[in-house]
Amino acid sequence: MTLSAMTASAAERAPGERPLIAIVATGGTIAMKNDPATGAPVPALSGADLVAAVPKLADLARIEVTEFSNVPSDYMGPELWPGLSRQVDALLARPEIAGAVVLHGTDTLDQTAYFLDLTLRSTKPVVMVGAQRNASDADADGSRNLLNAVRQILSPDSGDMGVTVTLNHHINAAREVRKTHTNNVETFNSGDAGTLGYVDEDRVIFSRKSLRRQTLPLPERMPRVDLVSMSAGTDGAQVRQSADGGASAIVVAAYGFGNVNAPMYDAIQYAIAKGVPVIVATKVYNGRALPVYGFKGGGNTLLKAGAVFADDLTPDKARVLALLAVPRTKDRAALQTYYDK
Length: 341
What we know:
Layout: H1 3-11, E1 20-25, E2 32-34, E3 41-43, H2 47-52, H3 57-60, E4 62-67, H4 81-92, E5 97-103, H5 109-119, E6 126-129, H6 142-154, E7 163-167, E8 170-173, E9 178-179, E10 188-189, E11 197-199, E12 204-206, E13 225-229, H7 237-244, E14 249-254, H8 262-273, E15 278-282, H9 299-305, E16 308-309, H10 315-325, H11 332-340
Helix pairs in contact: 5-10, 7-8
């Protein structure tokens, strides 16, 4: 947070008054309990319910809850993301609000976090949290994650860090974080980049900042961007179908440095010739998509065919960035600058 923002926020509080933090509930496992009839977790708790379950929050801050949605994070996407971004931005624009916590399911948590990081205009802290265990579990992790998120926002070093994903005490930057385990509470990490910090028992410790951040405006209409995965022996039909079916851009989840087979290469050429940008990302957990290999379908040949390379963004996040960049330009060189930042 800038000094002026911190001063404005403090000026809105009476002496000794606890800061005001906005909590935006969207659903996810953190808001689920086991259905008595089926024994399977389903949406059950509101954001207000989740706050009430952590009485210690009242000792730290005043809480204002906004119920944005209550859906599994598998339902989140381009239809809901702009509205969520506008809602969070509106809350942060209020001088009395010190920061925002967004409660969210973990399946698409990294994508929503990146979308918000790209579109929010405020420098106030935004912390996204979820849970790997639902509220019916004896060792549910949601309450601790929520408490840690509020503690993080109250840290004097938390401003201007971008949107973070903070679970199991670890603070990760939105651009770099990804989910790595289906059920372990230690599921989110940032690969080669490493975490930003840690919410410890006595204080919040930040070790670094994410230097690769940018802000893009929300488009008037979200484009259709398809994500197609390279697979052994694929014939490229899905890329051709996307190009013919109205996709504004296509992200290809490729192998290695960003390599595909010959039929997929031909399909990518076909899409680019039709004016549909193709962004090549790598499926590999760590490392960057780079135009290295010269065989037909190797990254170097894809670059010469006009493809954009997604650097170290996961395929999912390469698509998130395309949703915001493609409405601004379809020029290959201009698009590449967004992925190079």
